[in-house]
Amino acid sequence: MARLNFAQLALAFALIHAVDEVRRDPAVVKAARQFIEDSLQAIRSSAAVAREAQSSWRRHRPPAQGAGAGTGE
User: Is pTM, for the whole model, over 0.85?
Assistant: First the structure.
């Protein structure tokens, strides 16, 4: 039967408690919320850039060469 090492158990408990305290720290919570908001805004901005680049390409691309090139336009 395995024996409990109370020193290791106490250390694990102390580490878990410390991690929980850090996770609940108001500054950490605030920074995490800001990170999420900034990340979402970056995703929206990236999508806007992609749409604008696609639109610009459609306006500026060279005409298709030859008859029946199949551009669909």
Answer: no
* Token pair belonging to 48: 């806007």
Tell me which amino acid residue 42 is.
Answer: A
Q: Return the DSSP state at 73.
A: -
pLDDT tens for 24-43 read: 999 999 999 999 999 999 99
For 66, which DSSP code? S
- Work out the angle at residue 13's Cα, subtended by the Cα atoms of residues 9 and 19, and round it to the nearest 5 degrees: 145
Question: Measured between alpha carbons, how far is residue 37 from residues 27, 40, 41, 42 in Å?
Answer: 15, 5, 6, 9
Whether 22 and 28 have beta carbons less than 8 Å apart is answered as yes
